[in-house]
Structure formats: C-alpha cells, structure tokens
Amino acid sequence: MTTPLLSAEIGKTLLDIVVADITKLEVGAIVNAANRSLLGGGGVDGAIHRAAGPDLLAECEMLGGCETGSAKITRGYRLKARHVIHAVGPVWHGGAADEEALLGSCYRTALDLAVAHRLVSIAYPAISTGIYRFPADLAARIAVGTVASEVASAPRGIERVVFCCFSSDSAEHHKIAFAELGLV
Ligand code: APR
Questions:
Q1: Which mutation among 24, 44, 84, 86 tests ligand 1's pocket best, with the greatest number of atoms within 8 A of CB?
Q2: pTM metric for this prediction
Q3: Alpha helices by DSSP H, 32-135
Q4: CA of 133 to the centre of ligand 1 (A)
Q5: Using one digit for the tens of pLDDT, what is the confidence trace for 121-145?
Q6: Distance between CA 139 and CA 72 in Å, rounded?
Q7: Most buried among 3, 35, 88, 177, using CB within 10 Å?
C-alpha cells in the first residue's frame, strides 16, 4: 500500500494524499480523467485502459458517452480496483466558462456513484490538470474542498478518499489545499 504523504480525518472518513500510479491502487473505485466519448485517450485515461485490458473499452462502448462535469461507472477488469468511475473534467478556457463548477461536479458525481455502489474507498487523479490544462493549484482546492464538504455533510459509508497525485508538485498543491481548509 502506498504510504500517504498527508492524511486528514473528517468524521469517520480518512482523506489521504499519495504520489502513485492510480492503476496500482487497491480501492473500491479509481476515477478516470476521461473525455466525453469515454473511448480512451492519453494520460491517465490511457494508463487505466492499458492496465484494465480491452474489456474496459468494450463496456465503455455501451455507455453512450458522458457529459462534461458528469461521470459513469464500469467494472475494473484486470485492475486491482473493483470499479472505474469515468469522470469528464472541463477543458480550461481561462475560467469564465463554468470550469470551476464543472470540475467540482466531477468530484461530487464520482463520490455519489461510489456511495450508490456501496463502495467504501475511492481514489482520484488530479482531474483536468494535464491535457485539459486546468491550473493545478486551483484544481486541488476544488478537489479537496468538494470532497471535504461532501463527506462532512454526509459520509454515507465512505471510509477512505485518496487524492492520487502523479508528481510531488501535484501533491504539494493538495497539501496546501488541506492546510487552507483547516484539515491539518
Ligand atoms: N496515475 C495517476 N495520475 C496520473 C497517471 C497515473 N497513471 N497518469 C497521468 N496522471 C495525472 C496527470 O499527471 C495529471 O495530473 O492525471 C492528471 C490528469 O491528466 P490527464 O490524464 O492529461 O487528464 P486531463 O487533464 O483530465 O485530460 C483529459 O486527456 O487522456 C485524455 O482521454 C483523455 O481527452 C481526455 C483528456
């Protein structure tokens, strides 16, 4: 198990920051930073599809795509995670196209899907901060803020949320967000 760089507790829910390859995490669901087609791509989307195997794409092809700000769930196939939650983050266009709300909606919708499938743990990549060019510091504040307020108001059985960063810079942005929210 990847040792968290930082952990915080909100009620009975543990929030962890790790630097890891999300395809290696053994959690109820890993979240994919997908595109609206849900038919794969580069970045973490490509890594998840490679690790899960071709059956993942076959299931995604049945889903009919997904709107920006929303998410859909599939099985995890060859992944250690039982499920993949495919969230479609916003492309950054400067911040005046509702990007912040759409990113928050990805985190919220993914958590709702995990709860609906009675999962107790979920891992997120830093959605939209790669190819979609969302500023990483602002994205981290939205990610942590959205998850923290959701689990604070109603944990609904979620025991662990992992912010799975792919660089120390990304982890630092999430650590700052924890501190700004008074979680640590
Ligand atoms: N594990 C964890 N995080 C990862 C991994 C991995 N194996 N690979 C990449 N990341 C990180 C990136 O470093 C970045 O911080 O995931 C974050 C999101 O980056 P992208 O994968 O580029 O996703 P995004 O910016 O949301 O763009 C989505 O890219 O791959 C395509 O099909 C995808 O069109 C969609 C777009």
A1: 44
A2: 0.98
A3: 43-52, 54-60, 99-116
A4: 10
A5: 999 999 999 999 999 999 999 999 9
A6: 21
A7: 88
